[in-house]
Amino acid sequence: MIKSVLIFLALILAAKAATPQQWKSRIIYQLLTDRFSRGNGDNSGCADLGNYCGGTFKGITQNLDYIQNMGFDAIWISPVPVNYQGAYHGYAAIDLYGVNPHFGTEQDLQDLVNACHSRGMYVMLDVVANHVGPVSPDFSVINPFNKSEYYHPYCQINNWNDQHEVEWCWLGTLPDLSQENQYVRSTLKSWINWIVNKYGFDGLRVDTAVEVPKDFWYEFQASAGVYAVGEAFNGDINYVSGYQGPLDAVLNYPLYFLLRNIFAYGGDMYQARDFMNSMKAFKDQTILGNFLDNHDNPRFLYQNGNINRFKNALAWSVVTLGIPIVYYGDEQGFNGGYDPNDREILWPYLKNTNSDMYQFVTKIVKYRKQMQLWNYPWVERYADHNFYCFSMGNAVMAFTNTDNTIQRSVTYNPYKEGDVICNIFWSGDCVTITNGALNVVLLNGEVKLYMPKSMMMEEK
Ligand SMILES: *[C@@H]1O[C@H](CO)[C@@H](O)[C@H](O)[C@H]1NC(C)=O
């Protein structure tokens, strides 16, 4: 009897877990829990971005409309365990089984997950299995890894080309867990299964993936039972693609570097062609985590303040192969620099839903959803030094890295003679396919996303 009840419960839990296939159609909004909303009406500023600013689970729960109204159907939140003093970001755990009291209670976290689920939104939890908070030499304060034998002996990662050093040495002062130790290994695996099922998380973002051996990730992924995307902070496609397999997917750092090169630094747009050829090294590009900005890098607008370049790059990250992740604040044109300046407080802007960037993000997110881009192969349509055009299904996207107004006749396109094709950003900006060509005019560096006019009508 008890056994059959347990099997029944296990089936329910298994059915709830979201697979890579289910994540394909999702679009993720990445936020830092400490920086999104305080949830108590206090909208004053933050004195020190290097310390807690006061964001909470309740604040997120109260402001899900702000996220969902842009069309997002998933959020990525900061790690939740109790952290070392001042570690507002969550990457320096002290107690893996507790909940960071700065963010709220276990119940507040559960309420957030439930509120998302009742809206049809997924919740992705950020997790760390490489290291704990900087407590050395007093490991006794870490729950459950309270002995020095659970860690690699101290050494510093200096040579990032030495994989053994990357896996065995420490990131700064953060004690490096020894996944070779059987207690550490089995406890991390049971912990991830426990936390996913306790709260009902739908997916994971896995910190510092390349700092841990791949054989551990295979087992960790299996225990997690939900889609997991690992952080492999490296632009080398051959190196990064090796972590898809051990984990379901990785964050698409190669794409991040491509978009910086062609849009922020004025690189040749032919790079995109070479890039897409090289990307075939991945087992499955459609489930990679694509992003333009995140909490570990200066924002795009810090590196290039040109709003059209930013719009081109952001649109590309949302419409290409893979699962898009938009970093909070991009929809308000944030331009913070190096950590922690790229971790601004959002609460002064939560009512600012008419801003140009908020409306732009809404359009690109809804375009991806309406056109169901994840169902179609990616096809290059036109490339030169300053112009690049690709399609997925009936959707054609045209980009430029120059402020000059340019015109291109795209003869290799998926449309039929006489079809009327419209740009989603300007009502009435439509062209008729003539002599087989889609005539693309980009004014002063703008990006255009096209769809058949017949589909624009359906939107109403
Ligand atoms: C470590 O934690 C275990 C389990 O709570 C406990 O039995 C043990 O005494 C602790 N050891 C140290 C060194 O704190």
Automatic annotation (TrEMBL):
Its cofactor is Ca(2+). It comes from the Eukaryota. Pfam families: Alpha-amylase. One of its GO terms (biological process) is carbohydrate metabolic process. It is an enzyme of class 3 (hydrolase). Its EC number is 3.2.1.1. The record marks D296 as: Transition state stabilizer. Keywords: Calcium, Carbohydrate metabolism, Disulfide bond, Glycosidase, Hydrolase, Metal-binding, Signal. CDD domains: AmyAc_euk_AmyA. Disulfide bonds join C155-C169. SMART domains: Aamy. Residues 1-17 form the signal peptide. The active site is at D207, E231. Substrate binds at H131, R205, G235, D296, R343. This is alpha-amylase. It comes from Blepharisma stoltei.
